[in-house]
Specification:
about 170 residues
Length: about 170
């Protein structure tokens, strides 16, 4: 019987483990410099700031998105900024000084713009629209459309449908 467990480490797990060790090292360094209580106070303060900034920035970005939609523009930049603000707030809420620094940097609009420009260059958005009246050019054997002939179905009077309740039939008359 073969081995069902993977022997190679998961890269995301390795990165998470490294991030945890970096945060612990940050706690130790800051704790030595300013003391344990001050370190705990900074952690709690950053969590509260994350919640407050998430609320304030989220409402601001929501109104910007609404105004962009009202003007007829696609709010792609505002959506990206909103996602980055949510990530920044989550990074502030997570205990740790390195995540706090990254979170605070993401609250700066110019940094969000740089990230959006970098991501938008690497991203391809594909959209398609079909009116439903075009002939498909692919094999219909995999389609979920059922094509019935005229003798395969029949229509009936909707007043005498078995799916209607008696009171519905009375109201129709």
């Amino acid at each position: 019987m073969g081995n069902i467990y993977r022997n190679t480490p998961n890269i995301a797990g390795v990165i998470l483990l490294i991030a945890i060790f970096i945060e612990i090292a940050g706690f130790i360094i800051v704790g030595k410099q300013i003391g344990v209580l001050a370190t705990l106070g900074l952690i709690i303060l950053s969590m509260v700031a994350g919640f407050v900034l998430l609320r304030v920035q989220g409402i601001t970005l929501l109104t910007k998105m609404q105004s962009e939609l009202a003007a007829g523009h696609m709010p792609d930049r505002e959506l990206a900024h909103g996602a980055l603000v949510i990530i920044a707030a989550i990074l502030l809420i997570i205990p740790g000084f390195v995540t706090d620094i990254i979170g605070l940097l993401l609250f700066i609009p110019q940094i969000r713009d740089l990230l959006w420009k970098w991501v938008s260059k690497k991203m391809i958005v594909r959209t398609s629209f079909s009116s439903g009246f075009t002939k498909n050019n692919y094999d219909n054997s995999h389609s979920q459309t059922i094509d019935l002939d005229a003798e395969d179905y029949h229509s009936s009077d909707p007043e005498h449908s078995p799916w209607r309740k008696d009171d519905d039939n009375k109201r129709l008359n």
